[in-house]
Amino acid sequence: MNVRPNQDAQIVFVEMVNRRSRVAAFGLLLVVLLLLVESTFEQTQPRLSSTAEFTALLKLRSSLGLRSKEWPKKSDPCWFWRGVQCRNGRVVGIDISGFRRTRLGSRNPEFAVDALANLTLLESFNASKFLLPGSIPDWFGERLSSLKVLDLRSCSIIGPIPSSLGNLSNLNALFLSYNNLTGIIPSSLGQLSHLSVLDLSQNRFTGPIPSSFGSFRNLSVLNISVNFLSDTIPPGIGTISSLQYLNLSGNSLSSSIPAQLGDLDNLVELDLSFNSLSGSLPADLRGLKNLQKMVIRKNSLAGSLPGNLFPALSQLQLVVLNQNAFTGNLPDVLWTMPNLSFLDVSGNNFTGVLPNFSFNANAMASVFNLSQNMFYGGLPSLPRRFSFIDMSGNYFEGKVRDYAPSNASFGMNCLQNVSNQRTLEVCASFYAEKGLTFDNFGQPNSTQPTTNGTSGKSNKKWIILAGVLGGLGLILFLVLVLVLFLCCRRKGVTSQRGNGVGPVPAGGSPPPPGMPINFSSLGEAFTYQQILQATGDFSDVNFIKHGHSGDLYWGILEGGVRVVIKRIDLSSIKKEAYLLELDFFSKVSHTRFVPLLGQCLENDNEKFLVYKYMPNGDLSNSLFRKTNLEDDGLQSLDWITRLKIAIGAAEALSHLHHECNPPLVHRDVQASSILLDDKFEVRLGSLSEVCSQEGDTHQNVITRFLRLPQ
Questions:
Q1: Residue 204, φ and ψ in degrees, nearest 5
Q2: Which residues contact 255 (CB under 8 A, 6 or more apart)?
Q3: Which residues does the annotation mark as catalytic?
Q4: What is the pLDDT of residues 516-565, one digit of tens each?
Q5: How far apart are CA 45 and CA 41, in angstroms?
Q6: Shortest CA distance to 559 belongs to which of 247, 154, 124, 162?
């Protein structure tokens, strides 16, 4: 009766035994495989064999305040310490990039790396983005003889570069950018014959570029941008035949561009922007046959572009020559270059009639900026494939065709069917000076150049007119002398009576329609694409604060220049606010006001103003500041600095009240309006509310001088 259940139980028992046997066999196989892998790993990655190096690593771990998560104390560094690289049981590489310190270590971070001196075979040390406040030790160049890569980017390092680094004969790459290094660049760095990358950008170096840099033979990247370097560009740099990337932008380099740079036939990118270079663009640069990017914006270069320069540069993709003083015609070859997709020649004195554009398939992503020059004649044909094209601020005439791209800007020209154009008088005068006929905005009686047949009658009219104007001018001159005499007589009385400043009006008035703003004195005309790129599409990371006249964002321009950009939404802010500020900057120039680097006014609903970045923020944030990110304690500004700030603010307001004509009132003086540069010098901001004083200053000039009742 119970035979069947017993048989089933036996079958289940056998299956369980077989399953356990298979599991045990699999576990045994896994153990064997792990032992084999461990044995193989031990052969390729042996444990740290040097007791002295293990002790040095423990000291380094302690002095830098590294966490057990990255460097566990009781495990082998070669196997388990993150960023430690070993070879044959010896330490050859350390990478602590982006590590976080312990809470105790973050209270007083220092450049405490003395233990590295005992790692005699160390080839690479990378501490980028790890806070190391302090100076680079002199012994680096004496004790780390095997070092090939030294990366100390964004470490808050101060002081000079020790000249002993020139003794690191095996060094291949030296990265010291984004620190606060000062002093001159030591010429001993020119001894690093194996160096292929040298990045000293975003520091505070002064003095000239060492001429010893011409001794480099393997260098492919040289970046010393955004410093305070002066003097000339050493011609010896042109002998570094291996150089591919050269960036000297954002300094105070002067004189002309050395013709020897044309010998760098392997160069791919050249950036000399934001300097004080003068002279012409040397034709010898045609030797840069592999050049893809040429950026020489914001200098004092002049003259015409060499006609034989660009035909040889067939690889060019980006050309930026804006904010110089170039003259003459643009070479026609620029419109047919096969790879060119970005051209910015704005803010120069280029002239001539443009040919019809003829571009390749890359034109779909092309950005061309020809604004603020003196081009004239009819508009060339403009393909719709442009990403953006700016033709504003020239003297083009005729009509804008219906097929013109919608993302093109044509303001401040002499065009017929576009708003915001120059006046008839300005356009007619420009074309008359060139002996050309202006189309009079499509109306009859267009202006004609002067002909010989009417020269006799015209001369008589001019003689009569000159006599009448001369007599009126003499009378006005005598009246002016009389007024000045009376003014001097009553100077003492006037000063005693004061300016008679009355109440401040509720709002400033925009500049009169008859007095257009001088945009040439307002810095660079940026494109909307440049603004988006600088601010990361106005990301939240770049957001600073909401201002009463617009939102503020920090950004970085193409040349690495740090800026603050005000985003003005005209749907919520009056148009007069930004016009008043532009009018102020076009008329008032003083070191105590925040520098306006440029503007972007091409959008109808949004306007953008670009200011110089102030490293120490505003007074409200700098008066009391945290000593570091992890500490809650506050450090107060010393009284000498406070007095310096007070004097600076007083000088700014004094200039508005007493040196401007008519006197101006700021109307928004508060701690957040007082901006501070890297030396705590005051740069007064929040200038959108500035307006002229009411009261006695608005009386009739003659009445004020004579003190007559109105």
A1: -130, 40
A2: 231, 232, 233, 277, 278, 279
A3: 668
A4: 566 666 778 888 888 888 888 888 778 888 887 788 888 888 777 888 99
A5: 6
A6: 247
